[in-house]
Amino acid sequence: MKLFEKLENELKNVPNGTYAPYFYRVKGFRRNLAANPSELRANGINALFTETTPIILKNEVITGNRFSLYTNASALELEYYKNLENSFGKRDFIHNRDHYAPNFDHTMEVGVTGLIEEIKASLEKHKDEPQKVETLNGMLIVMEGFLKMIENYAEEAKKLRGNPEYNQEYIEFIIENCTALTKGKPETFAQGLQLMWFCHLAFLMEGRYAMALGRVDQFLYPLYKKDKEAGIITDEQVIEMFENIFVRICDCQDIVNICIGGQNMNGECQVNDLTYCIIRAVKGANVPGPNLSLRLTENTPDDFLDECIQLIGTGIGYPALMNDDVNINALKKCGYEEEDVYNYSMVGCIENFITGMQPPWTDGRFDTPRFFDYVFNNGFSETNKSVGLVTQSIESMTTMQEFIDALKEQIDYGVKEYVGLFNSRNNVINQEYYPQPFLSCFCHDCIGRGLDINNGGSKYPSVHGAAIMGIGTMSDSLSAIEKVVFVDKEATLEELRDALNNNFEGYEELHNKLLEAPKYGNNDNFVDKYAVWLVDYVYELFSKYKTRDGGMIYIAASANIDNIDAGYIINATPDGRKRGAPLSDAASPTYGKDTKGATSTLNSVSKPDYEKVICGSVVNQKFSPAMFTPEKRKKLAALVRAYFKLGGQEVQINSTSREVLLDAMDHPEKYQNLVVRVSGFSAFYVTLSKDVQHDILSRTQQE
Amino acid sequence: MLNISNIQHFSVGDGQGIRTTVFFKGCNLRCPWCHNPETISPEKCLLKYQNKAKPEVCGRQTTADEILPELLEDKIFYETSGGGVTLSGGEVMLQAEAIVELCQKLKQNNVSVLIDTAGCVPYNYFEKINGFITGYLFDFKTANSEKYKQIGGNLQLVSENIQKLIADNIVVRIRIPLIRDFNADEKSIKDICEHLKSIGITEVDLLPFHRLGVAKYNAMGLDYAYKDQPPLSKAELKNIEQQYAKYFKVNIER
A487: which residues sit within 8 A by CB, 6+ positions away? Predict the structure, then answer.
């Protein structure tokens, strides 16, 4: 059994008691419940770090886990602490809390001690500004607590010296690495990795999720190179250390993005020996986390891309392949400094992020197909229980353009509704009352400015992603209206309205005609033009608005599995989709409607201008395992490269065969470890609901 | 006019790179294992699949100019992968006269063309198009002239055509379908190897039988003689590969 497999088993034996981070946090609050907000929050975080006792596992080479957060406190205590925490309130995803990629390149350069020095220097500089002093004091409390936690790990490890149940080599390694980190910046690769893991663990202890690690192959490369040149480390050891971490990421069932590759400002591909180690470790550990994202460039080496496709072919489904040129050009539009653009990475599933320089990500669902209901029904949607505008009556429409103009008005209203609601939800939090002192220490330039990450500390303002739901559904619907109503004149808009409101019951003939209209994903401009239009139009509308602190509202063409939830509350649509059925997924065509082969699908989906989809997009493509032989992999690589030349932004390839998925629905017990990838994250198939399983099944399987 | 059944994008089993395959209707052989039964007859036919409401009509008369735009759609994929267009069937060479224009126009557009043929046509058919294409994917079924006759072919004609193509410096890739009860026993394999070697062949592609065509037979309301024939096992395939490998460089199309 390999080391990471032993660790995987060890992680299953959780300690006795209750997993209760809030218990420790409130212990910290109770140091002074009437403290100023910075101090209060900082005390809570400090207690998470210092009032917990690390538990070092036998199979950890890089140590750190959440076992320390269990407690045997009494039920009364737990209830009281829980209530108290709730009363103090907290930020949520929508309030810029998680989905963040830290500026680890700086962390590696100075270490924890260096950050503490910076905080002290900033305190000195801002000593006459009380608000900043408060903020910086909060940062100092948490970073000193963090340093103490690392010390505690070293001390706990020392207690295990001579314990025959523990591999003494690992114990000495842990002691050496943790001790070094309490004294200065990381000097070896292992120390760098240990520091990165402690930071990530600390974020988890704080209660964040979907925290990205950023460009691991870049910020750890200097230490790796140094160790390799000194001959003190082998790639096998590096891979083992990564595997050791990856099984813990998986154990947390979290979406942790790791960005690899990419180009620098001179256009040179940044894939290095460490990048290879990372993908080999992912292959070795074979777990559906981390979320690996490859920034693919024209000069990414063929052998590296092939290794990535091989990894995808194991059934694990990642890395997701990202078109670096498109993303860079998209981000350049936002006014970021060029150097910062080239250092972007992804957070969450696929969201483009200026690494360590803007507040945590937020996004939401922009359900476009519901706007049809308002056009057809004088501004009302029974299914969606919502009201749009009264636009031109369908009875008086004589051209497709008139229909589109009405739809545009509805979408325009919908964008305003979305932005208004988002900004009010996002801004309901008092930024000063809910500071994030620990997170701020990993964001440029909160320490220097003496400001919290959400209160002007970050170099760039917060951005938001409005995820267009149902690009395929929208395009197919407009195509069906144009074909059936205006070109073939086989039905009137009133008949179409009645058919939609009756979920096509009694309108089978019309339903068939709608289903036969050209569909997105077959390289047919009759319908593809609508996808292009939708992206242009929605981008134009959202670009008019800003977040509370002046950042951009991006658009996204990713759905995770939200296209299913969105579909539940949307009436039947003119493409022939029935009421409540899933919308098309992310930037992909509607399931099963792209029937001409992968090149046609990709010809279609590369037509929208993705430099406007600044947040990012997802195109899912599934291939049978037979596509992953050495000869066929070359064809897949060529397929992806050509698609990116055409301007495609992203593709996620999945290799699981339909037969396997069907069998897994009936015999889940046989497929406990079957991993599938859906729009940006991987999951164990058997853990998904039947609905989602069906959704995965019905994605077109390209041969 | 071109008589075609279908245009298939992202073909990855019909020659080098990513290709678009045009399937032509009409065949002069009657191989009972054929997995494209809809291409055998030049006449239109109906395919009624269980999961589809409407039957599909298979077969249309078209022209080079009409299909050229669709064939050029994937040009960037051809360029990136070293692919192109494959003309298959049915027996595309029965329409040799008609495809000359198509091959010419593809060549003018710098698109490589491969012809997938069983080669049972007079050599002057080949001569019409040799100048415009990259090469032939040449099916070779058996070295037994009786068996060739059974399926409507002619071993001597096939062999001569291969030799003439080689003599004319045309690229020929020999492709052998592996059919358990027809050409996959040791004796048949040995005969095929000896025969091909004698006419100057150094490399072969092996195409293991699969019965995925059964869906098409059902859709056409026909019985498929090979519906119960399981695919070759890994061990069988390995054994066959080893026998061929004694004579040729072998590629297996999986």
Answer: none
